[in-house]
Design goal:
The complex is a heterodimer of chains A (104) and B (240). Chain A has 104 residues and is an alpha/beta fold. Helices cover 48% and strands 19% of the residues of chain A. Classes of the chains: A alpha/beta (104), B mainly beta (240).
Chain lengths: 104, 240
Amino acid sequence: MSIHILVLGRDKAILEVVERLINSHEGWKATVVGTEEEAFAALGEKEFRILFVGAGVTAEEEAALRRKISDRYPRVVVARHFGGGSGLLENEILSILNNISYGK
Amino acid sequence: MSNTILHKAATRGHAAHGWLDSYHSFSFANYYNPERTQFGVLRVLNDDIVAGGKGFGSHPHDNMEIISIPLEGSLVHEDNMGHKEVVSAGEIQVMSTGSGVFHSEYNNSPDKPVKFLQIWLFPNKLNVTPRYDQVKIEKGENQLQQLISPHMSEEGSWIYQDAWFFSGRFDKDKELVYGKKRAENGVYFFVIKGSFLVDGQTLESRDGLGITGTDPIQLRSLTPDSEILIMDVPMENKIK
C-alpha cells in the first residue's frame, strides 16, 4: 500500500520536480497542489499521511494550515519541505516515517 | 555545561555514484541516520569529489542557505538568475535560494576531479528573493578569516541566518581561542586538512565536532599546514 504525500507550494516548476522525485520512490505517491483550497479538496478525496508545505507559503499561512489540519485531519503530519526537491526530500520523508513508527 | 558531538570521518554516510563520490556528515539523500540529521540549523555537510567533465544538471532549491567551498579544482555554476560563474579553490560561493532557484554545477576541468564542501543551513527568513555571491579567501596563515556572517557590512559574504563561518590554515602547534558569536549558538568544527586539538578532543582530517555550552573554546594545530572550518550556528531556528 502506498504512502500518500500531499505537497503544497507556489512554484509550479519546483512542484513538478518534487512530484517526480517522490513518485520515483517505490511505495510513495505524490499529489501536488498550489493553493490551500486545492489541498483541502485533495485531503477530502484521499487518505494522506504527510502534507509538505513548500516554497512560497509564508510562515503565517503555514501556521493557519497546521491549525486547520490538526482539527480536521489529525493523522496527517504537516512539515515544512526545505531545499526544493533536493537530496533532502527523501530524508525528510524517512524522518517523518521514522517518527510515526516510534510514535513521536 | 559542555555538550559535544563527535563525527569521525570514517563514520560519515557515503555515496559512490561513479562520477560523484560523496561523504555526508549529516543524513542526506538515501543515507538516513536519525542520530545525525543536523547540528542546529546546520543541515548538510557534504564532502564531494566530482569527476572531470561531470556534475549536477539543472535542479531546483528553495529556502536553504547554500555555501560551496572548493578545496581542489573549480566548479562552473549556472542558474536561472542569469549567473554563469566559475568558483575555484580559494573562493567560496553563497546562494540564498529563498523562493526558488534552478542551477547546475559542473566540474570546470574535463579530466581532473574537483573536491568541494557543500554546506546547507536552514534560513531564518522564508521565501526571500534568491541571491548569489562569491568571495575570495585571502588571509594568510595562522589566522582565521571570516567567510560568512548575517550582516552585509561584515567581512565575507552574508546569509539569512545568525551564523558565522571562519576558516584558517595553521602551522604546527599554533594555539587560538574561539569565542562564539551568540550565546544561543553552537559551534561545529570541521577539519579540512591535518589535525587539531579542539576542546581537548583530537580531530583528524574530515572529522567534525559540535560543541554547545563551552565558550570560549581552545584550539591547537597538531600538524603542519592544518586547515579548519568553523561554523557558528543557532541551535534553534527562529523564523523572522
